[in-house]
Amino acid sequence: MKPAGTVAIPGFRGSGTACGIKKAGKADLALVVSDLPCVSDVVFTRNRVAAAPVAWGKGLRSRAALRGVIANSGNANACTGKEGLSAVRRTSDAACAALGLPAGSLLVSSTGVIGVPLPAEKIEAALPGLVASLSARGIARAGDAILTTDAYPKRGVRRVGVRGGTVTLGGIAKGAGMIAPNMGTMLAYAFTDAPVRPADLRRAFREAVDPSFNRIVVDGDTSTNDTAALFANGACGLPPLEGRDLAAFSEALQSLLLDLALLIVRDGEGASRVVRIAVTGAASGAEAETAARAVATSPLVKTAVFGADPNWGRVVAAVGRSGVRVDPDRIELSFAGETVLRRGLRIDRAAERRAAPKIRKETYAIDVDLGLGKGSHYLYFSDLTHDYIRINAGYRT
């Protein structure tokens, strides 16, 4: 869970700058664009209170041929009504014009404080300099410019050998709080020089989003602005991927997005540990997910993780109140591979003692077997520390 040093994808250029949305001259405007036409796909938050750029993006005539993204931080442009939509249109039109692209060629994203009008004029004024500073190694700077409460940037790179050569994938993301995605995460963008057909790219992207961005929880809140996108420009010059090459690309994409997702949950606004909660033996897959999310969002469980307390009772109680079918006498529960609760509600104190030093580590697993069926699900979640309250108590003030 360490970010890549830089991100360089053939055919893509990026940059980041300060346009005055954030205070103290911090970078707050990012741009990444492909020099070649792209195949693309985008997923958005399912929060019914969606920010203006999400609403605008959903209305784009085609999200399958976008050339890149322009994104600001420091202002979510959410709950801003018609004025917010107008700001998105202005941003899109100005950015596309500055790049010499047709209108609607770029995805537009925002992140930051909700309910504050977005000063589109500041973005417009900064665009000439932002475009002039675009470079092949500037994608990392773009990633830095979308951060808000993040403690560090999230970026990753993968290279995959295919018949005839190598394809490169890279990504940037942001997110630390308001994390319980129901599609993707706060903001995440992946870029590749691979040649991928539209239907294949869409399938690979959707299949990669679910086991990565949809499996992380920091605080149980789904953002108004969640957006994840993939852009492929075919700059490697190879024919469209298929068969084993397409499978290898899909596997690399899943690995990349999982890395970005884990960087987000590890950042977790003061987080000190990341836990993988796996629920098996549920009556159905849906019930396993419900139970896992109850554990991952429980303040009592999360504070026990922070305190390195093998408090299996809090985990069992969270599963029980989730509403899924449960027979307490069939439950088995393990911390870091040590089975502390066996069927029949038999407690293994020796296992608890063995688990105690293991759960002081930065990462470990909690496994719950309900013993009722074949349903299973897993999530990654962070602990709840004093810093989370400090950061969020003063987010606007």
Got a strand count? Answer: 16
Strand order of the largest sheet: 9-16-11-15-12-13-14
Radius of gyration: 22 Å
Largest sheet: 7 strands, mixed
Structural classification: alpha+beta
Structurally, the number of domains stands at 2
What is the residue-mean pLDDT, rounded to a whole number?
Answer: 94
Distance between the termini: 31 Å
Query: Could you state the CATH homologous superfamily of the largest domain?
Result: L-amino peptidase D-ALA esterase/amidase
Question: Could you explain the architecture of this structure?
Answer:
With 397 residues, the protein is an alpha+beta fold. It is built from eleven helices and 16 strands. 33% of the residues lie in helices and 26% in strands. Strands 9-16-11-15-12-13-14 form a seven-stranded mixed β-sheet, with helices on both faces. It has a five-stranded mixed β-sheet with strand order 3-10-8-7-6, with helices on both faces. A hairpin with a 2-residue loop joins strand 12 and strand 13 (338-342). The two termini are 31 Å apart.
Layout of strands and helices, then pairs:
Layout: E1 12-17, E2 29-34, E3 39-44, H1 52-58, E4 68-75, H2 81-99, E5 106-113, H3 120-132, H4 139-145, E6 154-162, E7 165-174, E8 187-192, H5 198-209, E9 216-217, E10 227-232, H6 243-267, E11 274-282, H7 285-296, H8 299-306, H9 312-321, E12 332-335, E13 338-342, E14 346-347, H10 349-358, E15 363-369, E16 375-382, H11 386-393
Parallel strand pairs: 4-5, 8-10, 9-16, 11-15
Antiparallel strand pairs: 1-2, 2-4, 3-10, 6-7, 7-8, 11-16, 12-13, 12-15, 13-14
Helix pairs in contact: 1-2, 2-3, 5-6, 7-9
